[in-house]
Write a structure and sequence with these properties.
Layout: H1 7-34, H2 36-57, H3 65-91, H4 94-100, H5 103-115, H6 122-143, H7 149-176, H8 181-196, H9 200-203, H10 209-233, H11 238-241, H12 248-260, H13 266-288, H14 290-293, H15 295-299
Helix pairs in contact: 1-2, 1-3, 1-10, 1-12, 2-3, 2-8, 2-10, 3-4, 3-7, 3-8, 4-12, 5-6, 5-7, 6-13, 7-10, 8-10
């Protein structure tokens, strides 16, 4: 029984990651139309409007001060991270942007060990490194080519975003143990909106109806993904779920191909194979230690 304790959180996390990857495609389109900053700010407003009745409907109560501070910190980190990421993927293929961001789960494993006291087993690290090798296979040809100045800016923005994403993953675990999915999704959208809205007066063009459609749909997908991931992170440790982040590349490649005509290559498929293999190794390593790890999160359900 103990060895299956993480099965449901893993499936929920995979669903959340797939939902988030589809949202990335919608946000790339919105960012092309109105810019990354405006798209993110307006998505946060739409997300707040969508999540407020959900949170209140679940009898949401105002959190204590320490939880509010955690909500605010993660919202600021996630907001800056997202603006940089969408700025980058406007200038690079979506799947490539996701691939470059995959340094984040590896960083997060060590941050979780430092800040959360979670052990990092050798197999978990080995699985993450194997998955990272898959990312290297995919981007090796890209990084050897010639990029425009805008392309270089995009790559740099994505790499900085990846470091912030690692921090975000660790904060996600702490947040999930203190608050429910609806509360997390509402406050993340609300705080991000408060931080980004003032800048709209200077950097944002008026959105077209088409852009608003992409943004509102993105907000709904983002809120759904946030709730799914919060539920999963409340029931499984960071080291178990973080390696699953690599599966986002598979969905990003599909979305990039369908929405933007970004082709899949044999190099891409070879990298995906390594990514999936690394995830399986790391997840199995997490399951091996599931018995002692599964007790604390259950209290926060």
């Amino acid at each position: 029984m103990a060895r299956h304790v993480h099965a449901v959180p893993i499936l929920i996390a995979l669903t959340g990651l797939a939902t988030f990857s589809v949202m990335d495609g919608f946000m790339k389109e919105a960012s092309i139309l109105v810019g990354a900053y405006a798209a993110m700010a307006l998505r946060s407003v739409a997300g707040t409007a969508l999540m407020l009745p959900v949170w209140l409907g679940r009898r949401g109560r105002w959190p204590v001060a320490s939880t509010i501070r955690l909500h605010a910190l993660r919202a600021v980190v996630a907001g800056v991270m997202a603006v940089l990421f969408f700025y980058g993927v406007v200038r690079t293929p979506l799947a490539e942007g996701i691939a470059l961001s995959f340094i984040a789960p590896l960083i997060a494993l060590y941050l979780a060990a430092i800040w959360l006291g979670e052990p990092v087993g050798r197999r978990a690290v080995g699985g993450s490194l194997l998955a990272l090798m898959g990312v290297g296979v995919i981007v090796a040809g890209k990084l050897g080519g010639q990029y425009s100045p805008e392309g270089v800016k995009g790559l740099c923005a994505i790499l900085v975003s990846a470091v912030l994403y690692a921090w975000n993953l660790v904060l996600q675990r702490r947040q999930a143990l203190l608050a429910g999915p609806e509360e997390v999704a509402f406050f993340q959208n609300a705080v991000t909106a408060l931080v980004l809205l003032p800048g709209l007066l200077w950097v944002a063009p008026a959105p077209t109806p088409a852009a608003l459609g992409w943004i509102v749909t993105s907000a709904a997908l983002s809120a759904a993904s946030l709730m799914l991931m919060t539920w999963a992170y409340a029931r499984a440790e960071t080291r178990v779920l973080v390696p699953l982040e690599y599966t986002a590349f598979i969905w990003a490649a599909i979305v990039g191909w369908l929405m933007f005509g970004e082709a899949l290559t044999l190099r891409t498929l070879a990298g995906v194979a390594l990514i999936v293999a690394g995830c399986l190794i790391a997840v199995r390593a997490g399951k091996a230690e599931a018995a002692p790890a599964g007790k604390a999160p259950a209290q926060a359900a």
